[in-house]
Amino acid sequence: MPNNISVFQVCSILLLSVGILNHVILIPVLLDAAGRDAVVAVGMVLALLPVWAACLTYIMKHKDQQPFRDWLQRHFGKGLSVIILAAVSVYIWLQGFVSFFDIIVWAHSTYMPHTPRFALALLALACCLFLATGGLRSIAIVSGILLPFVVLLGFFVAAFNFKHKDYSLVLPLLADGFAPVWRGSLFAASALFELVLLLFLQHRLTHRPSFADVLLMIFLLAGLTIGPLMGAISIFGIEEAVLQRYPAFEQWRVLELGKYIEHLDVFAIYQWISGVFVRLSLSLFIMADVWNAKNRRPFLLLAAGTMLLASIAPISDVRFLQFLKTVYFPFTFLLVIGLTFLFAGKTWISRWGMKGQT
Q1: How far apart are CA 318 and CA 295, in angstroms?
Q2: Using CB atoms within 10 A of its CB, is residue 292 exposed (0-12), middle (13-18) or buried (19+)?
Q3: For residue 278, which of 2, 91, 98, 19 has the smallest C-alpha distance?
Q4: Which residues are listed as membrane-spanning (predicted)?
Q5: C-alpha span between 228 and 247 (Å, rounded)
């Protein structure tokens, strides 16, 4: 399997791909929904998610190295498998679109206000389409190059902003009861549920990810959420943090080294572009790969073309945030939960039936 990648490589891909959602896009939604209790919401999800991780690894164990479409047709038949594949394709498309639209708006509103959004979108999408055409191995190589610098910059901004932080601002917790925690937990869980991508990529791996591998990724991704959450609250206070559109970026803007070195937010551009570049390329690749078609170019072009059109649609940032809160995160939460129970139940029934025949 010369074109397959290792579990370590897929972990680096997912840390960049899912990490940009957890570290950037999710934060303002969580702060708005749960306030200070957003940290508690992530902690509660982190405590419960090993149950879901166990279901995911159980499915992957019995799916083995079969392509996802072949496995679906074997267990659910051609008709139902097409419906499931269509739902998965919409889910993957939304993953790519949300991050793509968010970074185009952010780039246009912060450091490239005079560049047309269409030009930004076309250039970014062309680069991602080129990488996706190269296959999963190309995405893994690029991720391996980008990730170490992204991680180092993350520790850098956290360490040198420590003097601005007052962790007493994180308290009191649960001042309004558990209602904010429940609201925030749905958003936090739906973001971490993106590790379901392992199921779609399993046949491209040299060996199956273990329960420990999945659990480690969950903890790392949860840390990518808790870090900027606590940083935003401890630096700006909850009232100001809730009003910010990009709390993670604002933490870069207050960073300074001594008296004479500041405006280091240029490094945030590298971090965010790296994450979205890998995330969008991976989304395009998976949308074509799950259908297991011999000619994947039409799938790639269709997915990229619809994303380009959607990214330049006259959607305000307020409506986009509302879409995240009311459509995207609830939809992904329900879809992944539903598919997990459906796949785990069908796998268990199939194995139970096989045992009954022996």
Answers
A1: 39
A2: middle
A3: 19
A4: 7-26, 38-59, 80-108, 114-132, 139-162, 182-202, 214-238, 269-287, 299-316, 328-349
A5: 8
The CA-atom distances, in angstroms, between 32 and each of 48, 147, 200 are 23, 29, 32
Q: Which two tokens stand for residue 235?
A: 């630096």
Phi (first) and psi of residue 5, to 5 degrees: -120, 165
Find residue 256's DSSP bridge partners: 262
Q: Give the tokens for residue 138.
A: 């190309």
Identity of the amino acid at 322? Q
Token pair 């199956």 is found at: 208
Rg (CA), the chain: 21
Q: What is the reported pTM?
A: 0.93
Fold of 7-347: Amino acid/polyamine transporter I (1.20.1740)
* Cβ contacts of 223 within 8 Å, gap of 6 or more: none
- pLDDT block averages, 10 residues each, the chain of length 358: 81 92 91 91 92 93 87 89 93 93 88 87 92 92 93 90 88 87 92 93 91 94 91 91 89 83 84 92 92 82 90 87 93 94 87 59
> How far apart (Å, rounded) are the C-alpha atoms in residues 254 and 252?
6
Distance, in Å, from the CA atom of 225 to the CA atom of 190, rounded to the nearest integer, reads 13
